[in-house]
Amino acid sequence: MERQYHKWFSPSLNRDMELLVFGSRGVPVIFFPTRSAHFYDMENWRVVDAMRDKILTGEIQVYCVDSVDQESFYSDNPPPQRIIRHIQYERYILNEVVPFIRKQNKTRGLIAAGCSLGGYHAVNIGLKHPTVFNKIVGMSARYDLTRPLPFFADLFDGYFDDNIYYNMPNRFVPSISDEKLLDQLKKLDITLVIGEEDSFLPDNQQLSSSLNYIGINHQLYIWGEEAHRPRYWREMVKLYL
């Protein structure tokens, strides 16, 4: 399986960023890491290996990006700075990673995927930019980081502003009414996957209900047990990517 390592200085983030590319052709997939994880963890956890057949046959090409979650959601900075750092990260993906992919790969389509917090990243960016992506897959994710849950805190310590609102799918999705945006969202292939014992199950059910409310087709798959571990993600990517 072809493997490439890339690193460049990101103007969006004012720091070096790294990524790994697996495969040489096929529909490109931007794969976001889990909380506190890095661009190499999906390879180490054998999640990439679980996609080997699809990569080798040229069905998909996988781009494992890094995150700055420790500088945004999980930093000690004031909450307004946390969400601003996240927005800068999103600019890095849209203005740097996506053009990089397009130079390497001329295949139509672009998939955003991830597990846990990576699933949040994939679904959030995909729903906000449905003309950039044609498919989004969120596995074991939560979609409102302001909602405290058992073992999971409000990542903004009670602070709330418009930047946060427009980056929490369970906040902004029910209010989408623009017909042009709705038409674009209707073209998206949206898949949400969650375990029945996962703390984020209600969050996924809420997002599913919100998408139904605004008339957006999607798939919600509820697995047995918690299903919030690499051994489950290895099976999920075989089915949903």
Return the string of H and E elements. Answer: EEEHHHEHEHEHHHEHEH
User: Class, according to the CATH hierarchy?
Assistant: Alpha Beta
* CA-CA gap between termini: 17 Å
Report the radius of gyration as a whole number of Å. Answer: 17 Å
How many helical stretches? 10
The coarse overall form would be globular
**Mean pLDDT, all residues:** 97
Largest sheet: 8 strands, mixed
CATH architecture: 3-Layer(aba) Sandwich
Quote the beta fraction: 15-25%
What strand line-up does the widest sheet have? 1-2-4-3-5-6-7-8
Number of strands: 8
Would you identify the regions where 5 or more consecutive residues have pLDDT less than 50?
A: none
The domain count comes to 1
Looking at CATH, the homologous superfamily is: Alpha/Beta hydrolase fold, catalytic domain
Helix content: 25-40%
Structural class: alpha/beta
- CATH topology: the name is Rossmann fold
InterPro entries: AB_hydrolase_fold (IPR029058), Esterase-like (IPR000801), Mycobacterial_A85_antigen (IPR050583)
Protein name: Esterase
Pfam family, one: Esterase
Short description:
With 241 residues, the chain is an alpha/beta fold.
Write structural notes for this entry.
The chain has an eight-stranded mixed beta sheet with strand order 1-2-4-3-5-6-7-8, with helices on both faces. Strand 7, helix 9 and strand 8 form a beta-alpha-beta unit. The chain contains ten helices and eight strands. The chain has a single domain, classed as Alpha/Beta hydrolase fold, catalytic domain (Rossmann fold). It is 38% helix and 21% strand. The radius of gyration is 17 Å and the shape is globular. The chain starts with a strand and ends with a helix. With 241 residues, the chain is of the alpha/beta class. The mean pLDDT is 97.
